[in-house]
């Protein structure tokens, strides 16, 4: 198959369904957000224009938006992988924290050549994320335990565990709750001299394309998609549903750990308490808004990155609080959840666990 046909297939059906299927939910959320802005005696037009200016006003602001987009995008890809396999990985935040800490430990504890140092740190971040979801994944496939509950609980354990490591075992001298800085040989290369934007963005974009191609053009990807959409049919076809489900969750957790490694090696260059608040949950929302499409997640992650970056200017130029962004995100969750509950043509009751 030619490259032209490949990219036509890549960006046609899945992306078109994504943009049309969730557009109404997006519009309703923004409309409700505008009503709330009116209730605090502020102009919705002024607030949205300020957000746009704060996110895309100049080159530095665009770079800042892309910097915020990067971890959301990678976390969104992790969520898409789980959703395609019929799983719901709500523990991406915890996997991100464990991956970020693992990368920081390799970064400051070992002295290695530059490229090897980055690869070693990123590899351990991926392993940490995969291992952290391995227990919920095992109980899901072996005993049918709901992975939503177990991965949510794992988030709290991961956050507190990394806090303990940071404060009591690896705290740098001084008053801040953070590890020693990583060595410069473990830094991810920056894309621009005026911003901390790094090649993590390119990693996220490559993941989106690669994961899309995997699910669409490989037998293993097809098996995972069938397990997510019609598990009984997949089982009748000879697919080991439990093994595929376990593998899907492991890969999802590994990508979540990768997001933490990118954030540590490319942005903060150390691990600190609360170093990436909410990126895992924002990535999950971005994946839901994109209807589980990795390519669509690029655009939804950019939207949430713009909200985060633009909110920095919101309290300067308007009377609205930055918390209005949290309200808008909550409205998007509600609108998307309502859309996911709507029956789709061709679906059978009980046939699909998640409608993606």
Blueprint of the fold:
Layout: H1 3-11, H2 13-21, H3 23-39, H4 44-56, H5 59-84, H6 92-109, H7 114-143, H8 147-169, H9 200-217, H10 219-229, H11 231-236, H12 241-268, H13 279-289, H14 294-317, H15 323-341
Helix pairs in contact: 3-15, 4-5, 4-14, 5-9, 5-12, 5-13, 5-14, 6-7, 6-8, 6-12, 6-13, 7-8, 7-12, 9-10, 9-14, 10-12, 13-14, 13-15
Written overview of the protein:
The chain has about 350 residues and is mostly helical. The chain has one domain (about 15-340). It has 15 helices and no strands. The chain has helices at about 5-10, 15-20, 25-40, 45-55, 60-85, 90-110, 115-145, 145-170, 200-215, 220-230, 230-235, 240-270, 280-290, 295-315, 325-340. The chain is globular and about 60 Å long. The two termini are about 25 Å apart.
In short, what is this structure?
The chain has 15 helices and no strands. The chain is mostly helical. It has one domain.
Q: How many separate helices?
A: 15
Report on the biggest sheet.
none
* Backbone shape: globular
Poorly predicted parts: 343-355
Report the C-alpha radius of gyration, rounded: 20 Å
How many distinct domains?
1
SSE topology string: HHHHHHHHHHHHHHH
Q: Tell me the structural class.
A: mainly alpha
Total beta strands: 0
Global mean pLDDT: 85
Task: Give the fraction of residues assigned to helices.
Answer: over 70%
Distance between the termini: 26 Å
Query: Strand share of the residues?
Result: under 5%
